[in-house]
Design a protein that fits this description.
Layout lengths: L25 H4 L3 E7 L3 H14 L6 E4 L18 H8 L5 E2 L13 E2 L18 H4 L6 H15 L1 E2 L7 H12 L6 E2 L2 E2 L19 H8 L5 E3 L2 E9 L2 E9 L4 E11 L5 H8 L15 E10 L10 E5 L7 E7 L17 E10 L8 E9 L5 E6 L4 H22 L11 E2 L35 E3 L14 H20 L1
Helix pairs in contact: 2-7, 2-10, 5-10, 6-9
Length: about 500
């Protein structure tokens, strides 16, 4: 039998793409008037983008988003199979990648900046507790709303307390802590997708980063994304925001128009842009907060423990009357590790105890422009005025006492001579800086209203760590995401009106 076959066509891309995420040129964005333009792609910017795309799918609305950084990695660094703890640290903390901002900030020497798509969510520790209710009661947001938006944020970020489930070391040390007065200790909440790959649905991005927001948004509706695009000026006309000036890495300026602008640059960059743009507001840049941070690494004998230890992750949360939280993680560097790395079996390990303390919100702690130093784009660099108060130092003493008691509890000891040496982190090194565009009702003591909109300017919003009115003692990312989603919902309602 004579068979005749046609030749299969060689598959070719319809639209060749040079990058792992579609990008738009500033030249093209300059020809578009956006319904919303977002500046910054970290936790807050990514959350705002995701929520807008989720609610506007099929409407034809136009969304733009820009970032001063470039494309670094397409996922959280812990999801990269070639990077174990040592290699990821050497890569991400390379001074060419992570800017050592604190070198020029004598009162905030630990500060660092990461300019890249995804921002610091590429490297954050994924610990995701809620702020304690006692803290939220001080904010100008109803508790029921915070609970609703926390639930939304936890769902989209895949926050779970099952990360350490079944781990013998966590269960044994939890029991020891409970028996020694740490009754609120619990398994640590982590933003980790625990779903197994099944039926062809791949779950390869276990640890959350805002790249996951972009991935979901891409499948909801189209948006324009430009990287290596620095916002240098905000334009306001008759009390309404109208657009920005953005500059390319080559220094060429572009005028981008938008009905609404969401600033999500960071606690440093958002007030920097507002101040340089001459946006009025006596609280802008003020009330800078962070967390005091005490840490120790202690030896732990696991003799008599099951051979398969599992992962150690315990949170002793902040509560009313306890202005600090304590994280206990390990064993050693194996709180997480790539599947290709072999975890040794041994009787002696190290455990890390890390405590974050609440810092008072004070007007005098602030970010300001340094007119004597300007960047490549002509924008003044920042300077920081910052100090800890007597109350902050009292919290540090409470943290130290708690770490010492927890050390004895988890090691099953009462010998005071075995207490660990503690180190106090440089201010700014906790990566939890916040407050410089804080939420509030009073324009004299806050930069934005309870929905994140700049006082007195229509269409201008903030959705990053800078909006947190107080620091609490909880890792801020979950709260920032919850507030960013709430701000996006408010923006949507304002556009309906």
């Amino acid at each position: 039998m004579n068979h005749s076959f046609s030749t299969c066509p060689l598959p070719l891309p319809v639209t060749p793409q040079d990058t792992w995420i579609p990008l738009a040129a500033l030249e093209r964005m300059e020809r578009t008037r956006y319904d919303v333009l977002i500046i910054g792609t970290g936790a807050g910017g990514g959350a705002a983008l995701w929520r807008l795309c989720n609610q506007w799918r099929g409407t034809g609305r136009k969304i733009g988003i820009i970032d001063a950084g470039g494309l670094l990695i397409p996922s959280h660094v812990w999801n990269v199979p070639t990077l174990n703890r040592g290699r990821w640290f050497d890569y991400m903390y390379n001074p060419r990648i992570l800017r050592t901002l604190g070198l020029t900030l004598p009162e905030f020497p630990g500060a660092r900046q990461l300019f890249a798509l995804g921002g610091k969510t590429l490297t954050w520790g994924a610990v995701s507790p809620r702020m304690p209710v006692s803290e939220l009661l001080q904010w100008s947001i109803p508790l029921r709303e915070m609970d609703f938006y926390y639930s939304l944020a936890e769902k989209v970020m895949k926050v779970t307390q099952t990360y350490t489930s079944g781990s013998a070391i966590t269960q044994i040390l939890l029991k020891r802590l409970w028996q020694n007065g740490f009754v609120d200790a619990r398994e640590i909440p982590m933003a980790v997708d625990m779903t197994a790959t099944q039926y062809g649905e791949v779950h390869s991005n276990a640890f959350f980063s805002s790249i996951s927001f972009f991935a979901e948004a891409l499948n909801l509706m189209s948006f324009d994304l430009a990287v290596e695009a620095r916002a240098v000026q905000i334009h306001v006309e008759k009390g309404n925001v109208s657009g920005i000036t953005a500059m390319s890495k080559e220094g060429k300026a572009y005028a981008l128009e938008a009905e609404n602008i969401v600033l999500a640059g960071s606690t440093f960059e958002t007030p920097r842009l507002l101040l340089h743009s001459g946006i009025p507001g006596p609280a802008i840049g003020h009330y800078l907060t962070n967390h005091t941070s005490l840490m120790t690494v202690i030896p732990l004998s696991v003799k008599g423990f099951p051979e398969v230890l599992g992962t150690l992750g315990i949170l002793y949360p902040a509560l009313e009357g306890r202005p600090f939280q304590l994280q206990i993680q390990g064993p050693g560097t194996f709180a997480w590790y790539p599947q290709y790395e072999e975890k040794p079996v041994r009787e002696d390990w190290e455990v890390r105890l890390l405590s974050f303390g609440r810092v008072e919100s004070r007007f005098e702690n602030r970010v300001m422009l340094d007119e004597n130093r300007k960047d490549f784009y002509g924008v003044p660099e920042i300077q920081v005025q910052f100090s800890y108060s007597d109350k902050d130092r009292e919290v540090i003493a409470l943290m130290a006492d708690s770490i010492r008691k927890a050390t004895n509890a988890i090691r099953g000891e009462t010998d005071e001579g075995s207490l660990p040496s503690l180190c106090l982190a440089l201010s700014g090194s906790d990566n939890h800086e916040s407050g410089t565009c804080r939420i509030g009702n009073d324009p004299l003591t806050s930069a934005v209203n309870p929905f994140g909109q700049l006082h007195g300017i229509r269409g201008l919003y903030v959705s990053d760590n800078s909006v947190l009115p107080t620091s609490g003692a909880a890792n801020p990312t979950l709260t920032t995401v919850a507030l960013a989603i709430r701000t996006a919902d408010y923006l949507l309602e304002m556009m309906k009106g």
